[in-house]
Write a structure and sequence with these properties.
The complex is a heterodimer of chains A (186) and B (138). Chain A is α/β, with parallel strands linked by helices and 186 residues long. In chain A, 37% of the residues lie in helices and 24% in strands. Chain A is globular. Chain B is an alpha+beta fold. Classes of the chains: A alpha/beta (186), B alpha+beta (138). Chains A and B meet through strand 2 of A and helix 3 of B.
């Protein structure tokens, strides 16, 4: 892939949130997948689960090549979270808004990835949002109360445009941070 | 969180544990053997109760899945086993034949073990586990 610049973005979130689907939706080439049979149906009734990573590539219109890394969702694979976050410019956190644990998942994963890299910007994508938008504001406020400011969107991870919105927002947040940092230096 | 013995059939975990115990006893240098589900759960281990076993089980499944993806990407057909050599010893991860869902055997050995002999013994153990687990209708 010939590119003017290269960036790495990590997709994370609990099992079943749609990380593999999101990467598949936007990757220019068929992504590398490490899905295996899920033996833990009691936790999430899903046929397969990612145990190492997903990897896809996306070339943006401005010539930026984005490497897309998806993490496994389960906490027992948290060693992969740290490995995959190395060198990433930001994190896309996906949450399944229809599960009873959605708020807890949001807090758990946001805090875990904030610990891994306190300066990495992230953006939240909430799938299967019940009802209308107010729940997204509630999610954003809950995060802000914990000192984490991140844009929150309702998304359908099967929809390429929705996932691209998350990527573009993350790049805007990064740009704003870079601008603020440059101004602070002067 | 469920423990290993709660998640998998007790008879199967006991059969596997006996096989692993015999393997460790018969193979010099082996310090740990773990049978792991494809999605990273410990099914049985010898010695039992080591604090690192659950994390090693998860890492084994990640490494095996990643190795398979790499082998496919390189057009090398099918992975046989994964060997990690370090200053302190060797780790081998092998798939367990035709058992479904997929299982793997992880073997940790101290530094002075000869790799060829370790690999041969690990494959024998893997084959024995496959026979016993298939007979038990895993």
């Amino acid at each position: 892939m010939n590119a003017d610049r290269e960036l790495k973005i990590v997709f994370t979130g609990p099992m079943g949130a749609g990380k593999t689907t999101a990467i598949r939706a936007i990757s220019d080439a068929p992504p590398v997948s490490t899905e295996v049979a899920n033996t833990d149906q009691a936790t999430v009734a899903k046929a397969t689960t990612t145990v190492a990573l997903d990897y896809g590539q996306l070339l943006l219109e401005d010539g930026t090549a984005v490497s897309l890394y998806g993490t496994p969702g389960q906490e027992r694979f948290s060693f992969m979270w740290e490995i995959l976050c190395r060198g990433a410019i930001g994190v896309v956190l996906l949450i399944d808004g229809s599960t009873p644990t959605a708020r807890e998942d949001l807090r758990t994963y946001a805090e875990a990835f904030r610990r891994i890299n306190p300066h990495q910007p992230f953006v939240i994508g909430v799938g299967r949002v019940p009802g209308d938008e107010p729940v997204l504001d509630e999610y954003a406020r809950a995060l802000a109360a914990r000192g984490i400011v991140a844009p929150v969107f309702g998304v359908d991870v099967r929809n390429r445009e929705d996932v691209l919105l998350l990527i573009e927002t993350l790049l805007c947040v990064l740009e704003a941070q870079t601008f603020e940092a440059a101004n602070a230096d002067h | 969180m469920q423990t290993t013995s709660q998640r998998f059939d007790a008879n199967i975990t006991e059969l596997a544990r006996q096989q692993l115990e015999a393997f460790v006893a018969a193979t010099s240098g082996v310090t740990l053997a773990v049978l792991t589900s494809g999605d990273g759960f410990e099914i049985a281990a010898h010695p039992r109760g080591l604090p690192t076993v659950q994390r090693l089980a998860a890492m084994s499944s990640s490494l095996q899945a990643l190795s398979e993806a790499m082998v496919q990407e390189a057009g090398l057909v099918r992975i046989r086993n994964l060997i990690i050599e370090s200053d302190g010893g060797t780790v081998i991860v092998l798939g367990i034949g035709n058992v479904t869902p997929r299982l793997s055997l992880t073997v940790v050995a101290s530094g002075d073990e000869i790799l060829g002999r370790l690999l041969w013994a690990s494959r024998e153990c893997s084959a024995a586990l496959e026979r016993r687990l298939l007979l038990s209708n895993v």
